[in-house]
Amino acid sequence: MKIIYNKIVIVLIASIFAISCEDNDDLITISPTASTGAAILSMNTIVLDRNNEDEEVLTITFQEPDFGYNSGSIGYQLLFDLEDGDFSSAEIKAVGNNFSTTFTTSELNQILINLGANSGEASELFVKIETVLSGDTSWFSDVSNLTVTPYASALDLSSRWGLVGSATINGWDGPDMPFYQSTEENNPEGTFVAYVNLTDGAIKIRADNAWDVNYGDNEPDTTLESGGNDIIISAGTYKIVFNENSLNYSVEPYSWGLVGDATVNGLDGPDMALMYDPLFDNWKAEVTLLDGSVKIRFNNLWDINYGDVDNDGILEPGTLNNNIPVTAGDYSVIFNPRTLEYSLKRN
């Protein structure tokens, strides 16, 4: 009886399949040669050198897949992971419709560091190609690998200077809110910057968390005086810059944040704040997002805002068609305002 039942089921499935095929004469058949093949790497072993950050060190190429039909718009991405990874938290590099891309020392190093590789130690880096046919259809290549030794990308921007006062989180007793060496181009030697969230109150700048060397502003103007008067400040988020040689200083509202219908406060904000990370001289946040899209903007205003037109990890300013789509989940956000590089990595 069981044998007869199985035969009936097989006949029914075959009949349904035949009818389906008759109703879909234009059914697309993907060629068995659709794969891109494994990524072809220009190097098998690389020791990265901080002194050659702009040098091109690795080129990855792959073949154009043959789908057996006109596939229209196809996008490609390179996925990177370490030896023990399963690509579920891969570093992703979108390459558009290109079949070759080249990485500089700094770009490849950042991929390794983001994946958790140890600086100064050789790591196996694995690469595979994702062919994106649509939002829910992708093909993956076989995996290639190479050995890469990254360097520590963290910077030492620490200084002896700090911000103290009733407007700071720790008040007049400190410890002070730190100033970091400025990395902005064309700043004179001895320039330091602090990114701080302050309350209504007063501030001064001092050295070594002590009052032996401290500065205020007697006028007030843009020049500090030794032992000068308290600097009155209103609540807000600020960028404070001063030069230890000229004693010139400036205070300006300054913040970066994530805005969009995928954020908890929507398009009206306030934005999900990004925080300055002095180890990498960029801005970061751990955020929970909804289905929707986001952009990065300055000071909770639309005057300066960025999205990603090409989905290539580089932001473009203020167009209407560059929202960054996301699905609901927890993300790590990294943003560099100088280079406009960013990553939005799902945790």
Question: Could you give a short description of this structure?
Answer:
The chain has 347 residues and is mainly beta. Helices cover 10% and strands 40% of the residues.
Key features of this structure:
2 helices; Immunoglobulin-like; 347 residues; six-stranded antiparallel sheet; 29 strands; six-stranded mixed sheet; mainly beta; single chain; 3 domains
Description:
It is globular, with a radius of gyration of 27 Å. A hairpin with a 6-residue loop joins strand 14 and strand 15. 10% of the residues lie in helices and 40% in strands. The protein is mostly beta strands and 347 residues long. The strands form 6 sheets. Strands 2, 4, 5, 7, 8 and 9 form a 6-stranded mixed β-sheet that branches. Strands 10, 11, 14, 15, 16 and 17 form a 6-stranded antiparallel β-sheet that branches. The protein has helices at 2-23, 105-115, and strands at residues 40-41, 45-47, 56-61, 75-82, 91-96, 100-104, 123-134, 137-140, 144-149, 161-164, 177-178, 180-181, 191-198, 201-207, 214-216, 225-226, 231-233, 236-243, 249-253, 256-259, 272-273, 275-277, 282-289, 292-298, 305-307, 316-317, 324-326, 329-335, 342-346.
